[in-house]
Amino acid sequence: MFQKEVLFCFFSQAPAYHLILEGILILWIIRLLFSKTYKLHETYKLTEKEKEDLIEEWQPEALVPPVSKDYPTLNYDVVTGPPSHKITINGKDCINFASFNFLGLLDNERVKQKALASLKKYGVGTCGPRGFYGTFDVHLELESRLSKFMKTEEAIIYSYGFATIASAIPAYSKRGDIIFVDEAACFAIQKGLQASRSLIKYFKHNDMEDLERLLKEQELEDLKNPRKARVTRKFIVVEGLYINTADICPLPELVKLKYKYKVRIFLEESMSFGVLGDHGRGVTEHFGVNIDDIDLISANMENALASIGGFCCGRSFVIDHQRLSGQGYCFSASLPPMLAAAAIEALNIMEEDPEETHRLTFKLYFGFVFLYSVHNKLSFGICLKLVGVPVAPALHLELERSSGSRESDMKQLRSVVDYCMERHVALTLARYLEKEERFLPPPSIRVVVTVEQTEEDIQKAVACIREAASALLIS
Amino acid sequence: MTESATSKLLNGDICHRTSNGKKASKNGFVKDHSLFEQPQKYRRPRDKNQNVPHNSSLYKKPFVESFEETPLWVAVLTYMGYGILTIFGYLRDFLRHWNIEKCHVARERDEQKDFVPLYQDFENFYTRNLYMRIRDNWNRPICSVPGAKVDLVERVTRDYNWTFEHTGKVVKDIINMGSYNYLGFAENTGACADAALEVTKMYGAGVGSTRCEMGNLDIHEEMEQLVARFLGVESAMAFGMGFATNSMNIPALMGKGCLILSDELNHTSLVLGARLSGSTIRVFKHNNMQSLEKLLRDAIVHGQPRTHRPWKKILIVVEGIYSMEGSIVRLPEVIALKKRYKAYLYLDEAHSIGALGPNGRGVVDYFGLDSKDVDIMMGTFTKSFGAAGGYIGGKKELIDYLRRHSHSAMYATSMSPPVAQQIITSMKIIMGEDGTTLGADRLRQLSQNTTYFRRSLHEMGFIIYGNEDSPVVPLMLYMPAKIGAFGREMLKRNIGTVVVGFPATPIIESRARFCVSAAHTREMLDTVSLQELLLQDRLFDC
Hints:
The complex is a heterodimer of chains A (475) and B (542). With 475 residues, chain A is of the alpha/beta class. The N and C termini of chain A lie far apart (109 Å). Chain A has helices at residues 2-13, 16-34, 48-57, 109-122, 137-150, 161-172, 187-196, 208-224, 226-229, 251-261, 283-287, 316-319, 322-325, 327-330, 337-352, 354-376, 406-422, 455-472; strands at 79-80, 86-89, 92-96, 135-136, 154-158, 178-182, 199-203, 234-239, 264-268, 296-300, 310-314, 384-387, 394-399, 425-426, 428-429, 444-448. The longest helix of chain A is centred in the C-terminal third of the chain and has 23 residues, at 354-376. Chain B is of the alpha/beta class and 542 residues long. In chain B, strands 5-11-10-9-8-6-7 form a seven-stranded mixed β-sheet, with helices on both faces. The longest helix of chain B has 26 residues, at 72-97. The interface between A and B is large, with 120 and 124 residues. Strand 4 (135-136) of chain A pairs parallel with strand 2 of chain B, so a sheet runs across the interface.
């Protein structure tokens, strides 16, 4: 009774418009409750029979499309025996100008002995990821040796070279962040970028003005929306020595841009580790840049260090994060200890004998000069051009004039490679996934100069290429 | 902590699971023409549920799995535990921010202080405040073969797990219940090790080139033919890393306009591969055939979202044994569904190859099915073969296609020769082609060990998840404090275990995981179960 009076008081004291408004609202709610609801996209329902018919009718595509028999990469060349300086390929003994064995350590006795000793102690596999009894003392030793060698605070090892940069980039850069990448970045970087879901901006290869233009545009965007800009991370991803174009990135200018526009640099040094710099520390030593200026250096141990796997090094602040968020590190078995031991011994050899790197540099210049002579002999109708800089160990020989069709270019280059293999020089075509690459490089032959090749070997190879080109390539 | 679960059941609901993994409160009927129609019965919680497969005609032997439900009061206590830890976490962050407490966290460079912060503060909250406290249970370095017994490097921490120091001593003979060493091939003596030694002397350790350029050695071809024979498929291809096998080959097979139906608890590599492929991904409930069938029917009937064009291909992605749950996939039912709806099946046998089946040929062998029914058989060599790497097996057209279009074949270095040799030797032993019965003995030993271990733990009253034939044995712990305590106490008793918590598992279902191996003897398993029983008074009160 008391409550009814109170309610009546409230109603009589409230202003009229208030009551009318509330009345309208209540009527609206009642209307909504009783109106028919309909889904925007399902305005019809299928009968059971129709569904069955649809299921019967549906035919999927074949799991894989049929591939023609004479597709160039169908048949792999089979290597019998070790893939070292003298290589037996398809039954023929050749000199190896195709494997990335830059410092010749694939065949080194000391490295093999250390790998054998480790095998006798640990067996082959690790049977677990790093978090669950898969961390061996060898891994910890290799990480500390690498970080000391590169003069950084910490290093982290991956068991697969491709997975190193492909796991490192998504660990730091997430949706909403911005990454500026060179167009000639290798496939592993592209996969890392795709996995990160960030906004990717490509700048022309080694073109610092293009990069600066993109950075300036981004700066203007940031001024429009400072709140968002305060949480958007920005990265530049470059390679020290590009595998696709065999030239070096202009690191000092990049560092200047880094401090000017406040972006972080990730450097991929698979080709330049062990090759550039006085001690083989890579492109930072080559240019004399302070290594702390680079946020993350990633490299694989499959080229100069003649082992398997990869590593990232940098400051602890940056690297430690990957131990919990690098997918290729946390969810994958660790590197077999014998391969880690082989890498440690290779690193020992590199450190003991910095002259080795100097010898390699000398060989590289020598090789480059000779290969360049192939390029210069235009009057003989040689239509191959040399792509790359003198210090690059893996150079590309492209056709001067493309015939217009990639397939026929590849066939021509393949015939040059086959000709050289007949004459005991092992070369290879540079292979790419044509449909997956963002900026597909032109077809080329890859020539690798290593420290084990003698000057006669290089001269012989160049003569062979010249012969092949004049015999097979019509100008 | 490593993750193998992709979904995070953070909804706070207590998981009312029946043995089928279905939510017990719903009562949905599946349409008439589906293969597995049945009303869902509500089962009483807290019972050990014996599962009766719906289509028993497809299963040749009983399929017994159990996922006991979390008791209510345990769930409440677990949430309270996490709540207390979070409050303390905020308190410690506050103290660190105001420099009352010394901060061990690594800091950004002074020159880069005005850059956008590399990490968001909250991203690392869990790492800083919860993970750090019990970090000594993971990444334990070892210095011997990861066999049945292992030697650990002793490490101490003076600042509560922020940094570790190695004392230089070695803790010997820890019973290893953590390494994936199912058939005991992690050894440094014997036929495998000798063969690998020879190959290292001849070939060296590295390769230096990709598979399609100069890295295709004769030993790789031999290994691939052997793998194809082992699996009973036309052809096989091997890759250097198991994770990369998934993440690089699924994108080569699937693309835009395709549909991938993936299990809830699939491994990160499968999720990454599916994402990189650009296809649409739909998730079905763990091992739940009704959920899968519903998704298949809806997908075919309605087509692609918005445009309603028919899907180009549908791929069902499942694993053989799920390593965090210990459950085995219901393969006969999946194959029946696949045939009915014309989908393709991708089976990831990372943990089950070599560990299941009378001949060690994996989950296909275990159910007595035909390996030709599985379109893409994938597996890894890390677990049962004591090597490293992964493989994909299937029809010749599939493998030929992969040889030309797989990312790994074009851009990644091929497998190291001694690792390839280890695979060849261990596979020959399992198949019995080396002339001894070692393979058959080990397979039998593994299956006996699994049954014995599971039974003894069950009799002691512990809550064990998973199928009774799976060598992966998860033991439920639930509370966050028990994770740390269990790991440390077991180590004090010379037993090395693996404990996992959030985010690898749902937040209230932290567990310890044991991996039974053929190398374990009965005495070792008895010691482990006995020590757990003794610990029970100290840790477990349920």
